[in-house]
Write a structure and sequence with these properties.
With 378 residues, the protein is of the alpha/beta class. 24% of the residues lie in helices and 28% in strands. It has 2 domains: 81 residues, Urease, subunit C, domain 1 (Roll); 286 residues, TIM Barrel (Alpha-Beta Barrel). It is built from 9 helices and 23 strands. The strands form 5 sheets. The protein has an 8-stranded parallel β-sheet, sandwiched between helices. A 6-stranded mixed β-sheet has the order 3-2-7-21-22-23, with no helix packed on it. Helix 4 packs across helix 5 and helix 7 packs antiparallel against helix 8. The longest helix is centred in the N-terminal third of the chain and has 14 residues. Bound molecules: zinc ion. Zinc ion binds next to loops. The site of zinc ion (ZN) has 6 residues, from loops.
């Protein structure tokens, strides 16, 4: 049976349309005028709230007490069900820099169990490391960093969608060339890097076309040595940011938004304490303390976040001039286009992943593949 959402402020591209009805089953079936509502549909009245595509988080390690590195079916299920409440309808399960055996176990788990989760869909895996620069490891454990290695990629080529690496490390050039030749669907992203401007530009020529949590775990932008940040801002590649107002100064975030616009994506980089209480948690074998929305290692190093994606949207609205449709774009169409999937947009034939929210990005309803997975107050 088809369902229909009525009385919404429907966001399509950069416009907000009223008096339209969205009809769907597991896909968006059609968008019609209010007075053309067909009979025999299940009507969902959203009472004037915003309706947009479901959020896509391309960088998330954990939430609800679980982590992708736990490598169990239950951990993926917990993350999936936890983040659907924040409007996230799909995500890349993100691995950490750990020993290769643990990474492979996590990838295998994603391969086997990704399709069985009940909340937000798992689109595949994002490997954050282990091919990064020890100087910019951030909360990734230095001792597990290795030189780029393509030998195991083939076993997981169906699920690896993105790899964050430091392009200046030994063997990175050959790695990037190999991946682009054999697995062109894998997004290669510069991150945890100390590359110079020139090294980064060279890497972009070879096929890296995204930057991971711009500003964090990379060299600073000096006016005579603009480094990774300068190269990313000076090129047309896409990038993502952790907009929790902790990882980046508000002014930095505003600057990045001003320059990158529709090439900017928002991520949570959430660790297992996402959606949980304050306290101590494990992250890739290291202890992380969570206090006042800040996740840090014992030495004070920021260690991922406890950010929710709808909060990132709210923060962007508070500190930049971004409009609601533009903010939504950063977590819907921008990542969906990058991944080459028919999600993140309410248009005929697209997956029926949708979110209903108010002007503060409080989530009222989350729909995944046409099924209601979260309803506020239910
Ligand atoms: Zn991360």
């Amino acid at each position: 049976m088809l369902s229909a959402i009525i009385n919404s402020k429907l966001i399509i591209a950069d416009t907000i349309v009223e008096n339209k009805v969205v009809i769907f089953d597991e896909k968006i079936h059609s968008i019609v005028d209010k007075d053309r509502l067909p009979k025999n549909v299940k009507v969902i009245d959203v009472d004037g709230a915003y309706l947009g595509g479901g959020f896509i988080d391309i960088h998330i390690h954990g939430s609800g007490g679980s982590d992708v590195m736990d490598a169990t079916k239950e951990s993926l299920e917990t993350i999936s069900e936890s983040i659907v409440k924040n409007g996230t309808t799909s995500f890349l399960a993100t691995t950490m820099t750990m020993d290769l055996h643990s990474i492979e176990k996590a990838l295998e788990n994603i391969q086997v169990n990704a399709s069985s989760v009940n909340g937000a869909n798992i689109l595949g895996a994002h490997m954050e490391g282990p091919f990064i620069n020890p100087k910019k490891c951030g909360a990734q454990d230095k001792k597990y960093i290795i030189d780029p290695d393509t030998s195991f990629i083939d076993r997981y080529k169906d699920i690896i969608k993105m790899i964050t690496l430091a392009p200046e490390v030994e063997g990175a050039d050959a790695f990037v060339k190999y991946i682009k030749k054999h697995y062109p669907h894998i997004i290669l992203s510069v991150g945890h890097s100390d590359a110079t401007y020139e090294q980064t530009m060279h890497a972009l020529d070879l096929g890296i076309d995204h930057a991971t949590h711009l500003g964090n775990a990379m060299n600073v932008m000096h006016h005579r040595a603009p480094g990774v940040i300068g190269a990313v801002l000076d090129s047309d590649i896409t990038c993502d940011v952790i907009a929790d107002r902790i990882h980046l100064h508000d002014a930095t975030l505003r600057t990045f938004w001003c320059i990158k616009k529709e090439r900017l994506m928002l991520i949570t980089d959430s660790m297992r304490a996402g959606c949980m209480c304050e306290g101590s948690y494990d992250l890739g074998g290291q202890v992380v303390n969570v206090e006042k929305g800040k996740a840090t290692l014992q030495n004070g190093q920021l260690a991922g976040s406890v950010l929710r994606l709808n909060e990132a949207l709210r923060n962007m609205r508070e500190i930049t001039d971004i409009s609601i449709p533009q903010a939504l774009f950063c977590v819907t169409e921008a990542p969906a286009r990058k991944l080459g999937i028919k999600k993140g947009r309410i248009e005929e034939g697209y997956d029926a992943d949708m979110v209903v929210f108010d002007e503060n990005f409080d989530i009222l309803l989350t729909i995944v593949d046409g099924q209601i997975k979260y309803k506020k107050g239910a």
